[in-house]
Amino acid sequence: MTMKERLPDDGVDDALALLGRARTDSGAPRADAGRAGSAVPEAHRATPWPEARAVAARAGKDAAEAREPVRVPLGQGLGQVLAEPLRALTDLPSFDTSAMDGWAVAGPGPWRIDPEGAVLAGHGSAGELADGDAVRIATGARVPSGATAVVRSEHSRTDAAGHLHALRAVVHGQDIRPRGQECRTGDRLLTAGNAVTPAVLGLAAAAGYDELTVRPRPRVEVLVLGDELLTEGLPHEGLIRDALGPMLGPWLAALGAEVLGTRRIGDDAEALFAAVTGSAADVVITTGGTAAGPVDHVHSVLDKAGATLLVDGVKVRPGHPMLLARLEGARHLVGLPGNPLAAVSGLLTLAEPLLRALAGSPAPGPYRLPVGAEVPGHPYDTRLVPAVHRGDGVEVLHYNGPAMLRGIAAAHGMAVIPPGGARPGQPLEILDLPWQVMSAEGPGGGAQGVCFT
Ligand SMILES: Nc1nc2c(c(=O)[nH]1)N[C@H]1C(S)=C(S)[C@@H](COP(=O)(O)OP(=O)(O)OC[C@H]3O[C@@H](n4cnc5c(N)ncnc54)[C@H](O)[C@@H]3O)O[C@H]1N2
Ligand code: MOO
What we know:
It is an enzyme of class 2 (transferase). By secondary structure, this protein is an alpha/beta fold. It has helices at residues 12-19, 49-65, 198-206, 245-254, 269-278, 298-304, 340-359, 406-410, and strands spanning 47-48, 70-73, 86-87, 97-98, 102-105, 111-119, 133-137, 149-152, 156-158, 163-166, 176-177, 188-190, 211-214, 219-224, 229-230, 240-241, 258-264, 283-287, 308-312, 314-317, 323-327, 331-336, 368-370, 382-390, 393-396, 413-417, 427-432.
């Protein structure tokens, strides 16, 4: 991006400001306040971007408290969040284990070889090894009691008399993984709140689990509004392809939500009311219809449904008409603006913190990377701009207009440009996309110690 870049849709917020908002008796903004027919127009107070994210996270956290943990078969736990610590159900390893193919030996060599014997992984009793004896052993097999070390095949030689000789010094306990080396029964392997990753599934299986106790996935339904949307073929006669239907379900699933479905509602207020009030989802996501056009029904439908607006407009570009409402039954609705990048902005600003908190996932700590070149800012609002990693920093992408997906489709993350813009070298907060993480910091884990066997 260059300094010549024009900020998209500047001045639109002034129009929105003139629309005003009224308040309910409770002090919360009424869902259709300031729109046609509203009695008391008042200056629109969009929520600052950081505060909007905090409101969404708080709403999710409050709703999460009423949700009971669920037990799921191990194979279904991926992407969910542990509701309780993962404690070892067994010692690991659960028996003294050979770390190498070779010989279990007892005492100093050379050793007498038991010509009949061999201890294999998964086989029953390993028997007893007398001092001066050696028996063949496979990696993963139980070490016989009395054994003092394992000698690797390649570090040994047998002679014609049936004796085993070590080709290098044998250290007591070498190549034996002692029972409980990794953990003892009852040890806490992971804390509640950890995401269930493929590695966690592996650890849980090793530690004896058939089921996991996890936070229930937030159930989400996507309602795509707009009569102008086509689901296939080329745009024609003012009709355009629905870019949000194909994008949002997979995006929300990548955030850990259970997507009940994506429905196309058109610009039909009654159908929208029925879909919102009848949805089985914890979070309803609508696209389009958030502004004040003749067929923008989201506010009036929320009002009719008795919803409470928690966020009604955010000081962010693109996407400032985004909204968050609480529906009956501790359910929520996130209204994403129709412009596709504005919808992404709403997804990252409101839906992600809400869903993360509902799922019980800890919010990732914010991280910053320096931007290479100057980035123009909005005078009062935060900007979210698709960005890519370059060297040790980031570079913002050119195609970042509210109606464009070309930038975000090529991006590694979204850079947060504070009001007023950013200078070259200024560290910018980065919002990760759920399928790629730009941060160099991982979740960490003990870096000390070495375990070669
Ligand atoms: N008088 C004002 N007009 C507008 C304002 C405003 O403040 N005052 N804000 C503008 C901004 S900013 C945005 S963003 C949009 C938000 O509008 P809506 O949420 O009501 O969205 P629509 O009007 O339904 O659609 C806007 C735009 O996006 C296209 N669209 C909608 N859905 C999809 C989809 N699924 N896939 C692809 N494209 C979609 C739609 O055709 C429109 O072009 O309002 C501005 N107006
Ligand atoms: O410009 Mo609008 O901010 O949401 O696309």
